[in-house]
Amino acid sequence: MDLLHTQLQAIQHKLAFVATDAIDWKFYVQVFSWGVTIFESYLLLRQYPLYNKTEPPRALQGHFGEGEFEKSQVYGRDKAKFAFVSGLYKQSLDSGMLQWGFYAWAWRAAGGLLGKFGYGSEYQISQSIAFVFILFFGSTIPTLPLQVYGTFVLEEKHGFNKTTPKLFVTDLVKGWAIAFVLGAPFLAVFLYIFEWAGERFVPWLMAFMITFQLAMVVLYPTVIQPLFNKLSPLADGDLRNRIEALAEKLKFPLKHLYEIDGSKRSSHSNAYFFGLPWSKHIVIFDTLIQQSKPEEVEAVLAHELGHWYYLHPTKLMAISQLHIFAILALFPAFLHAPPLLTAFDFPKAVSAQPPTIVAFLLFQMILTPLEAVIGIGMNAVSRKFEWEADRFAVELEEKLNEKDMGDMGERLGTALITLHVKNLSTVWVDWLYSAYHHSHPTLTERLKALEGFQDAKKKST
To answer: Which stretches make up the CAAX prenyl protease 1 N-terminal domain (predicted)?
Structure first.
């Protein structure tokens, strides 16, 4: 622990200028954030011409029904236009809030709100919680029209929306309530650790973050998700038999197998698993069951179990922890930096002793360009894991010595095509756009890789 603290202090020594130099951090954040937005807009402009192609890639010709490819292209164009406008709108909103001192105002408003209940500035954690929720609602409410348009115009136009206005409002209120019920205690503990641990907060905060993430693995599917969707045991039949047999052969610790009413809100489909290492649960969207044959759904689940087999969720969590550690290691220099708050219009009385939550949020803004780069790296790691999971499905015949799984690669390819066609997913994708936005390889890339995995398997036998 002392060695870690010594290394962290060395980092702070190199960043000591942050606490003394009058840097125009607001200007840099504006430039950085607009730079990221302009780059994302450029990527959309690179991608948009591909939506004007009149035929699918050669590997997918024959898989689209009459008019389906054209529909997917129109859907892609509409989503791209919406993403372009909404991206610029959100950035303009954030930029305006930043330029006109909204964060400083929110801190004052939080203090005034607590003052009405007889609490003074010495209750910094309470004021911090109020501050965060003022920021949350201040940034959320102006973007509600975008959510309404995306759901009731864009998705409705293309036949995907199943959400009623009543359900939309109910979901919104539930989401806000959950954000408060979980967010307030989380922030309280988060900030208390800073007060309690002092300069040695990093390992303690890391331990808390890991504990919280593990708790959410249990709480989200068992407590939170049922507030929005109904999870029912998958009905007896061919599909259930296939999945249970596959899980048993792989020694996957399957405890429950659920069907979720995803069609309640959307026609899009998916499947996933969750749980602790010794107790896993598989969830399949009803839309996936309706759109695909049992043997194709089994292939999709074989891919998902490949992620479990290769410990991909654990590896991603480990990478996430390293990312969080790096952020926390850099943060102390910004925590004790009055010039940082002064640059964002906070009065000297507040800047002299920067509130932890304020310094942390401003620090996160400064990291905007770095986070964009890290996102590209995380996508690359995720795509590598997708290749591995696809290869796992192809090689199940050898791994389990089961001849009836020899066609798992073909089944998975068919399932992926069905999912893309039914969801009107884009099949022409610019490589740079994909690298920045997509955690999965494109459909044509996956189909080509599946063919390669199957050829390699045939040569080895």
So the answer is: 47-230
Residue 386 assigned ligand-binding role: yes
304 belongs to the catalytic site: yes
Instruction: Show the tokens assigned to 414.
Output: 């068919």
The one catalytic residue in 40, 296, 298, 390 is 390
Q: What is the token pair recorded at 344? A: 């964002």
Contacts made by residues 40-49, CB under 8 angstroms, sequence distance 24+:
40/87, 40/436, 41/84, 41/87, 41/88, 43/430, 43/432, 43/433, 43/436, 43/437, 44/80, 44/83, 44/84, 44/87, 44/433, 46/430, 46/432, 46/433, 47/80, 47/429, 47/430, 47/433, 48/77, 48/80
Q: What are phi and psi of 199, to 5 degrees?
A: -70, -15
One-letter amino acid for residue 192 of the chain:
Y
Q: Report the Cα 369 to chain-centroid distance in Å.
A: 18
> Which of 304, 395, 397, 430 is the catalytic position?
304
Selection from 304, 229, 214 nearest residue 261 by Cα: 229
Chain segment 89-147, per-residue pLDDT in tens? 999 999 999 999 999 999 999 999 988 888 777 789 999 999 999 999 999 999 999 99
Burial of 435 (0-12, 13-18, 19+ CB in 10 A): middle
For 143, how many CA atoms within 13 A lie in the half-sphere containing its CB? 19
